[in-house]
Amino acid sequence: MARDRPAARPAAPALPRRQPHGGGAAHRPPAHRGHAARRRLLVDARAELDTWPQRDLLAWKAEAVALWPQLAPFLDGIRDNAAMTQARYAHGTLRRPLAPGLVHIGDAAHRASPQLGQGANMALLDALALGLALRGPLEDAPADYAAMRRWHVLIYQGLSAAFTPMYQSGSRSLPWLRDRLLAPASTLPLVRGAG
């Protein structure tokens, strides 16, 4: 039996296909030119991350402290670049989080950016769903668990993929939207659950 592998998801939106009228980039709608710009930004960010270990550590510390002065005491203990670990992760969901005698939960079943801070909660909800499924016939439990979690996981994965660029990108407009629109909206009673 073939092992389930995480569904491959592109790290950035795919470049659009050429429009039927045959026009080049100048004739594409602005949204399509945006896809190419986002892809270039992603490639640039990955290249910067790949070359980071060769950067001058003191220059990097100065840059970081200029952005966030309160960080200075935490950087004092870092003596060389090898003390730092690059964080790399990707969104992905197993097509089938189960196999005979095996059920994947948490990050093993659906990994995502930590930006929404819900990884532990998602794992706990998976464990609860599995526990509830195990109350029924044992042979049905894995499929019942997967069915219980399917839509919540898909919605969460979509939200995580949509919001991650607001926290991790070279964009100037996305953080502005996050700080000026999303932060105030998060205080509304309906969003906070008081509605």
Would you write up a description of this structure?
- The protein has a two-stranded antiparallel ribbon. It has a two-stranded antiparallel sheet with strand order 2-3.
- Mean pLDDT is 77; it is low at 1-33.
- The chain has helices spanning 30-51, 57-67, 72-75, 119-133, 141-167, 173-185, 189-192, and strands spanning 92-93, 98-99, 102-103, 110-111.
- Helices cover 49% and strands 4% of the residues.
- The radius of gyration is 22 Å and the shape is globular.
- It has seven helices and four strands.
- With 195 residues, the protein is mainly alpha-helical.
- The N and C termini lie far apart (49 Å).
- It folds into two domains: 29-83, no CATH class; 111-192, no CATH class.
Detail the topology: elements first, then pairings.
Elements: H1 30-51, H2 57-67, H3 72-75, E1 92-93, E2 98-99, E3 102-103, E4 110-111, H4 119-133, H5 141-167, H6 173-185, H7 189-192
Antiparallel strand pairs: 1-4, 2-3
Q: What would the keywords be for this entry?
A:
195 residues; mainly alpha; 7 helices; 49% helix; 4% strand
